Amino acid sequence: MCPQGQESERWQATKRKTGQPMITTFAEKTCQQCPVRRECVKVETRPKLLTFQPQAQQDALHAARDALVDPDAQRRYQRRAGIEGTLSHGVRAFGLRHCRYRGVQKTSLQHVLTALAINVVRLCAWLDGDQPVRTRRSRFAPLRAA
Ligand code: SF4
């Protein structure tokens, strides 16, 4: 059920490019007449599409989120999020997954230089006044809070 109290029309087993396997849609007519459509759906002509994990993964996700109510767990997770963000930055922007050289010493040197480059880029961004990007929220979240 969506924040406007409408029930999804159908659940369709399919896969997106990312491999996410379940999508449910709301009725096209319902979404077109919805007063909060602009805040909810990106595409002008289509109804709302939602993607879910398989049941076991979705349950694990909810359990992990429930565990984060504890302040100690939140502190641990903040550190983890920083580390994962740094690794992701290295992989996406600096080719961290691809070793350009053979041998442990050269590979190690490449990793040190990559870490140095990440720090330089981050320092420049900080000096330019760039702010960290906030985690994206579902379009449903503010509608549900309203
Ligand atoms: S546009 Fe969003 S809030 Fe409105 S009916 Fe469709 S799913 Fe529900």
Overall mean confidence score, pLDDT: 88
Can you summarize the main beta sheet? Answer: 3 strands, antiparallel
Helix content: 40-55%
- By DSSP (H or I, 4+ residues per run), the number of helices equals 6
Number of strands: 3
Instruction: List all distinct small molecules, including ions and cofactors, that are bound in this structure.
Output: iron/sulfur cluster
* Poorly predicted parts: none
The N- to C-terminal Cα distance equals 15 Å
Broad shape: elongated
Our estimate of the beta-strand percent is: 5-15%
Q: Strand order of the main beta sheet, please? A: 1-2-3
User: What pattern of helices and strands is seen along the backbone?
Assistant: EEHHEHHHH
By secondary-structure content and strand pairing, the structural class works out as mainly alpha
Rg estimate, integer Å: 21 Å
Describe the structure.
- There is one protein chain.
- The protein is mainly alpha-helical and 146 residues long.
- It is built from six helices and three strands.
- A three-stranded antiparallel sheet has the order 1-2-3, with no helix packed on it.
- The protein is elongated.
- The site of iron/sulfur cluster has 14 residues, from helix 1 and helix 2.
Write the layout of secondary structure elements.
Layout: E1 10-13, E2 22-25, H1 28-32, H2 37-40, E3 49-52, H3 55-67, H4 71-94, H5 104-127, H6 140-145
Antiparallel strand pairs: 1-2, 2-3
Helix pairs in contact: 4-5
The structure holds iron/sulfur cluster.
Iron/sulfur cluster (SF4) binds at residues 2-4, 6, 26, 30-31, 34, 36-37, 40-41, 48, 143.
